[in-house]
């Protein structure tokens, strides 16, 4: 999924010094967004948020389901980012303008690098089936943001198995495990799945900032009990994190080096200033730069109108 809001707000974030310079515990509430009209899928969006807009290079986080729903997201554009799709239940068919067609299911990774420009669609293969997952974006640094678009699917990912716990590293590195997915800045993206009444302590990098999101059940992170909904921002300066669950909880652990560049997000574009966003929108409406998404009968999604006020930076944190 992507940002289908018809009146998207700009979000300017990044910049050195905006990450917490030590361990903190900030519980960040998300906001509910319905994607695809009144009968669409309801997501809880915790990044970008009112207080924190990024965790490392992670700049967008939607958690959806579990619910019976039909995903039907027609061709739409992206620039300057990577999309990361991670499912707990259900299946989604991805198609894009570089010719990829890939069905993704639970425990497998789709990662799409937009670079200079890409378009893609996402749709359910079985209408009204149970779907549960997360959609994340990773902001590309300046050296990579105009790279050629590409797509990767990884069915085999590194896993750490401990008594009652399984940790899957889908992006970046954690505890000596490195995902095969190509990323462009130092990152951590992992799912931690618990059986009944189990716990684990994972090593962290003190130069990374981290956050934890519970996906199902109840998970305790650094002494804070979390149910699905809010994102627990942990700051930096930590060498380890204790996670536990009294049931079959699942959590997402995100981290990365604080992103030093300011970025401007609007709709499905990541750029650096107003002029770039205006150009991306114009190129999508003209239909040339992003290419065609073949194989789908879904209608192309038009860009919403730009706001009447000038898009301007506001920093990673209010």
UniProtKB/TrEMBL annotation:
Question: Boundaries of each Pirin N-terminal domain copy?
Answer: 42-138
Q: Which residues form the Pirin C-terminal domain?
A: 191-287
Which InterPro entries does the UniProt record give? Pirin, Pirin_C_dom, Pirin_N_dom, RmlC-like_jellyroll, RmlC_Cupin_sf
SUPFAM superfamilies listed in its UniProt record = RmlC-like cupins
Residue ranges, annotated region (Disordered): 1-22
The residue ranges flagged as biased composition, category Basic and acidic residues, are 1-10
Q: Which protein are we looking at?
A: Pirin family protein
Q: A single Pfam family, by name? A: Pirin_C
| Similarity-based family | Belongs to the pirin family.
